[in-house]
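input
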Amino acid sequence: MTDRDAPPRPVVALRDISVSFGGVHAVERVSIELYAGEVLALVGHNGAGKSTLVKVLSGAGKSDSGTIVINGEAAVIDNPRDARRYGIETIYQTLALADNIDAAANIFLGRELKTAWGTLDDLAMEAQARKVMGRLNSQSARFEEPVKSLSGGQRQAVAIARAILFDARILIMDEPTAALGPQEAAQVGDLIRKLKTDGIAILLISHDIHDVFDLADRICVMKSGHIVGTARVADVSKDEVLGMIILGKCPPAAVPGPGAIEQIYSAAAEPSPAG
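output
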């Protein structure tokens, strides 16, 4: 097999990740892979283990066991700074924007450019901010106004611009369309599609099944700290995905996670020999 024929290598792979809190398995033997230019949706009820797993990749939490592989090499991620060194950025639902300053200042927050005299180089920061926003095809940001005056979709664009300005290749997006109206949600969807065409890998955490089917290439369902299954969105129906989320039932088109959680739940529902 030639290199051209070889299957693509994931940009990030989590292998057998387990996390426990006080003896409770929040995440158990979870493995996922994410490829360049792909949106992988991670879904499940609250408490399914999604946030715990994402914290391991973003550097906000640590695993008890398992490995993280970035571009084929083992990675050590102990904090968010480590994650950024590997090209991983996280955009949380709250966006973590400073409402009282403008878009350019937010994009460079904590990484400001300085002049030769040690003062803030506002002109250079605004020029680069406009360039990266243009890369996103976002013409709507009002750079001179505090971001608190921007719409929800515009604020998302600022948060995304801040992430990709410093060459992030892996984006973790937590509920990017939550609390947005249809028009703003559509704007964020366009931003995500643009990121895909730029080859950025996106791990999308969402409770909105419609978002998942509109934006994701593959879907990974978690329940009770396990992977129920992973499937191409084109190969499963919304009802099948809901069955994975609610019942832990893996449809034929999905690849079941380790531990075959659907069998665990079926066994739990069967009457015991004692009656």
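quick obs: Residues 161 and 268 are 47 Å apart (CA to CA).
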